[in-house]
Design a protein that fits this description.
Blueprint: H1 6-16, H2 34-48, E1 54-58, E2 63-68, E3 71-73, E4 76-79, E5 85-89, E6 92-95, H3 100-121, H4 127-139, E7 149-154, E8 157-163, E9 169-172, E10 174-177, H5 181-191, H6 198-215, E11 223-229, E12 232-238
Antiparallel strand pairs: 1-2, 1-10, 2-11, 3-4, 5-6, 6-7, 7-8, 8-9, 11-12
Protein name: Proteasome subunit beta
InterPro entries: Ntn_hydrolases_N, Pept_T1A_Psome_bsu_arc, Pept_T1A_subB, Proteasome_sua/b, Proteasome_suB-type
Keywords: Autocatalytic cleavage, Cytoplasm, Hydrolase, Protease, Proteasome, Threonine protease, Zymogen
Length: 245
């Protein structure tokens, strides 16, 4: 048997005394310069945050969803022509607020899952199932800093769901998300009625977005409107609000 040298013994003794890192490390939080890494991530997050205003309203005949068209990075307007509402289901759409890259990844994932569901079962996914799927995706943490609204129509009627970045989900008659939410919500509180026609709902949604654009620096540059019925999803772009009000 080889006789250990003093150097070998000292290293072994350090391990026994707990003075060396465990062989299965590092544990969570044990990476070097952890505080500096967290601070750097915090600074980067501040620059990458995007503001927006999105709204969703349910009616007896379908769902109307609307968003502004501005994307921002820190204090700079990074784009003036962003479509923040996308079709993800034959009769369902999703608005996005938050990280652009995470939102795009979420949209691709939901489109893939709804298509796979239809292929396997020969029918479209219900809005309840789609909202649960979206919530589970967000809860996984893979789509951090995304706060979407989900709207759609199925056999049970029209639905609007509000989802938070951690996967919390609530079905609402109307909902808002984004940095201009408080301005849009004030309009919806005053103008929303259960018996709105689709045209009236479009006007209310446009008024809500317009109100946010007037006061929220991160919202602006026009409006996207998605009309969702049992026949499908129709998304239009408007640089001016007058035609919708």
């Amino acid at each position: 048997m080889r006789t250990p040298t003093n150097q070998d013994f000292s290293r072994t003794q350090d391990r026994l005394d707990g003075n060396d890192r465990p062989v299965f490390g590092p544990e969570i939080g044990e990476f070097t310069n952890t505080d500096e890494r967290l601070a750097a991530a915090g600074d980067e997050d501040k620059e990458l945050k995007t503001g927006t205003t999105t709204v969703g309203l349910s009616t007896e005949h379908g769902v109307v969803m609307a968003t502004d068209m501005r994307a921002s990075a820190g204090r700079m307007v990074s784009s003036k022509d962003v479509q923040k509402v996308e079709q993800i289901h034959p009769t369902g759409a999703l608005t996005i607020a938050g990280s652009v890259s995470a939102a795009q990844s979420l949209i691709r994932s939901l489109r893939s899952e709804t298509s796979l569901y239809e292929t396997r079962r020969g029918k479209d996914m219900s809005m309840e199932a789609l909202s649960t799927l979206t919530s589970n995706f967000l809860r996984s943490g893979a789509f951090l800093i995304v706060s979407p609204l989900l709207g759609g129509v199925d056999e049970d009627g029209a639905h609007v769901y509000s989802l938070d970045p951690l996967g919390g989900m609530m079905e609402e008659d109307y909902a808002v998300s984004g940095s201009g939410s408080q301005y849009a919500l004030g309009v919806l509180e005053q103008e929303y009625e259960n018996d709105l026609t689709m045209d009236e709902a479009k006007s209310v949604a446009a008024h809500a977005i317009q109100s946010a654009v007037e006061r929220d620096l991160a919202s602006g540059n026009g409006i996207n409107v998605a009309v969702v019925t049992d026949e499908g999803v129709d998304i239009t772009k408007h640089k001016e609000f007058e035609s919708l009000l």
